[in-house]
Amino acid sequence: MKKYQHDLIITANETLNNQYFLLKLTQSEPLPEMQPGQFVQLLIEDSAQTFLRRPISINFVDKAKNELWLLIQKVGNGTRKLAEYQVGRAINVLYPLGNSFSEPLPQQKILLVGGGVGTAPMLMLGASLKAKDIEPTFLLGARSAGDLLQLNEFEKYGRVLTTTEDGSQGEHGFVIQHSVLQNEQFDRICTCGPTPMMKAVAAYAAQRGIYCEVSLENTMACGIGACLCCVQDTVDGHRCVCTDGPVFDAKELKW
Prior knowledge:
Layout: E1 4-15, E2 20-26, E3 39-43, E4 54-57, E5 60-62, E6 67-73, H1 77-83, E7 90-97, E8 110-115, H2 120-131, E9 137-142, H3 151-154, E10 159-164, E11 171-172, H4 180-183, E12 188-192, H5 195-208, E13 211-215, E14 231-234, E15 237-240, H6 241-244, E16 247-249
Parallel strand pairs: 8-9, 8-12, 9-10, 10-11, 12-13
Antiparallel strand pairs: 1-2, 1-7, 2-6, 3-4, 3-7, 5-6, 13-16, 14-15
């Protein structure tokens, strides 16, 4: 898929809580085609401590409004600077990067599991599945109710189940402990989030013979496979997450 470098304009910068915010970006020309699971690299020009672009998962593409959505967690100087950007400001974006989640078979029962900022690509994936007449089940985990993000958006595309570590919403515990995993059988699982969560979901899928794809969040610098910063050990040797991934068949990973 062709890559682009565009100066996109901020149409909204929405604070979701004290840790997360949602950037919406556009341009005068139609945005290029993007697939669920892909990511962008943002150039942050006015942060003295930020020398490299920041990789951000594509959260959603609103084709009617020609908007690209990015769900961002404030974790360092770069993302904290982004949180301050105002509507109308331009951001240089390299995109779309990486591969995408694979196409499911018709009528498959699909579970999409997200934790923390790893819920971001699950929204676009769910919307894509719904457009193919496949209604997924979302299983979203967070520390507390206030950290469960975009639930109203997820509900547009499928059933939404939640867990919180403090029991303030949904079932008490981690996503891997949700009762749906014991009470229902799925044909395919896609997951993104903290590595321990993804490992547990992948192990569950392997035990039940369920095909599972994981979207890795390895540290990335260049986004185009040049720096080898994001290399992941797989059954086929070392592979770059930014070009061979970020989406992998869970059985391929040596973790």
